[in-house]
């Protein structure tokens, strides 16, 4: 029996995400160690996104033309190099250099999503994208907790080197386990040429609708994640270890949802309605962060928000891939990654600036407001409650 490509792509994405989550809660504290201000911490996160903004659509087009596997391998090699630089960092500029290297080759998730689109039927796609959600959720469950413990007991370089080792493992898994998907061809048998211009998709009503909704999601999530470590440190006095445990809680919720019920929810509700509910839960979790002074309320808000983000991303990704032809899926996912890059530039900078001025309530309101905008876009764009395309 032919082995499903979803298992190796899941393992590959999981190892990549685990490496990412080892670094994610570490970076703000690493930068603070080099006397960076909260705004500079936000700029550090934005640096990765600036580079990703350029690389996302380029790598998406390349993967359409030459295949997913070789493009994914090149992207993973850049991630590996970036983690090594991070581990050897002895000054703030080296932290920035590591993020530039990683961001310039940051196409792992986009290419994995395109691979799944190639290998699954449209009606099975949300559940398949849920596998990426499981990888993220499980990675967020394990990685931040390990990162916090390593950094607390062995120094800030230890999680970076552990992430580099995992990145190397992901390269091995991709090279040995992942079948290469042939590029989708046009009817004449040739590989179609595609424009990377945003106008190609933003000029068409349905892709534009989905891209705007996706942008609202990433703006909300990026603002939250871009300032979460600083928020926890400022409001609750959390160090890197306890911050890692908060990320782990969010990951546990995401893995539980996407590993157990995401497929049934998509079939029962439809992706449009599911994304609306997800946006609503995210808004509820983020908007009240400014009022959280005790641990029980913080935990409740984290759980509510994690439930929302766990269902929103796979639902929106499915809607996006269904809005274009099969030969355009890699390109439109690359454009979505660029939009995500814009939000990942703005979100951490805005969050760092607000938290640096002590405006923690405003930080939560901005993140929650973007989620509310996403819910509004789902309704205003005319999606019927059970729409799936």
Structure, described:
Helix content is 80%, strand content 0%. The longest helix has 32 residues, at 205-236. The chain starts with 5 loop residues before the first helix and ends in a 9-residue tail after the last helix. With 389 residues, the chain is mostly helical. The radius of gyration is 19 Å and the shape is globular. It has one domain: MFS general substrate transporter like domains (Growth Hormone, Chain: A). The protein contains 16 helices and no strands. Helix 7 (125-154) crosses helix 14 (295-322) and helix 12 crosses helix 13.
Give a short summary of the structure.
The protein has 389 residues and is mainly α.
CATH level 4 superfamily: MFS general substrate transporter like domains
Dominant shape: globular
- Provide mean pLDDT, rounded: 82
| Helical run tally | 16
- Percent of sequence in beta strands: under 5%
Radius of gyration, rounded?
A: 19 Å
Summarize the main sheet: none
Secondary-structure element order, N to C: HHHHHHHHHHHHHHHH
Number of domains: 1
* Record field, number of beta strands: 0
Structural class: mainly alpha
The CATH architecture comes to: Up-down Bundle
Helix content: over 70%
What CATH calls the topology is Growth Hormone, Chain: A
Low-confidence stretches: 185-197, 384-389
What distance separates the N and C termini?
32 Å
Task: List its traits.
mainly alpha, 80% helix, single chain
Strand and helix layout:
Elements: H1 6-23, H2 26-33, H3 38-66, H4 68-87, H5 92-104, H6 108-119, H7 125-154, H8 157-177, H9 198-202, H10 205-236, H11 240-260, H12 262-269, H13 271-287, H14 295-322, H15 329-356, H16 360-380
Helix pairs in contact: 1-6, 1-7, 1-8, 2-3, 3-4, 3-5, 3-15, 4-5, 4-6, 4-8, 6-7, 6-15, 7-11, 7-12, 7-14, 10-13, 10-14, 10-15, 10-16, 11-14, 12-13, 13-14, 13-16, 15-16
